[in-house]
Design goal:
InterPro entries: PRC-brl_dom, PRC_barrel-like_sf, RimM, RimM_N, RimM_N_sf, Transl_B-barrel_sf. Helix content is 5%, strand content 46%. The chain has two helices and 13 strands. The termini are far apart.
Length: 180
């Protein structure tokens, strides 16, 4: 297969095993909802030799996960060679979001600032986010210039805890006390 040229690649799922004897595979999707995994048309996998394009020509929800057929893979033995591989897409393949919505990857690395004693204080940078079920949580790690060396967990609640996001400046402002 051809090696794709991709500037940014996002993992959207993993092939976890085989399903049946005709080349179908089980997929653990990282998309929300999980069926969105099947909506992309230019998937990629990474093997030792590098990235290669892959095409799913059929797929559906099955139990708590997805199953899909890999084009050109028509037996279980060949399907087994895909087990454990991550499936990714180009970052540009993601749909545009409405104003005020963000992909987690866009927030990672942004500086987080809070107001303290009438001025802004740098808490750190967003390392990653956690989905708690109730709401997402920013995991903020200390960085050069941050107020201290504490890691902080700040709820992602736009309009409440999160008061402003400036993507151009890579800056998030939060209503958060330093003692929290």
């Amino acid at each position: 297969m051809n090696e794709p040229v991709v500037s940014e690649r996002l993992v959207i799922g993993r092939i976890t095993g085989c399903y049946g004897i005709k080349g179908w595979v089980k997929i653990h999707s990282y998309t929300e909802p999980m069926e969105n995994f099947l909506d992309y048309g230019e998937w990629m996998i990474e093997r030792r030799a590098g990235l290669e394009n892959i095409r799913f020509d059929a797929g559906r929800r099955q139990g708590k996960g997805l199953v899909a057929h890999i084009e050109g893979v028509d037996d279980r033995n060949l399907a087994e060679t895909y087990q454990g591989l991550e499936v990714s897409v180009a970052g540009s393949a993601l749909p545009a979001l409405e104003e005020g919505d963000y992909y987690w990857r866009e927030l990672q690395g942004m500086q987080v600032w809070c107001v303290e004693n009438g001025g802004y204080v740098l808490l750190g940078t967003v390392d990653y986010l956690i989905d708690t079920g109730a709401n997402d949580v920013l995991v903020i790690k200390p960085c050069e210039g941050s107020v201290d060396e504490r890691e902080r967990l700040v709820p992602w609640l736009p309009g409440s805890t999160v008061t402003r996001v400036d993507k151009d400046a890579a800056r998030i402002e939060v209503d958060w006390c330093l003692e929290d």
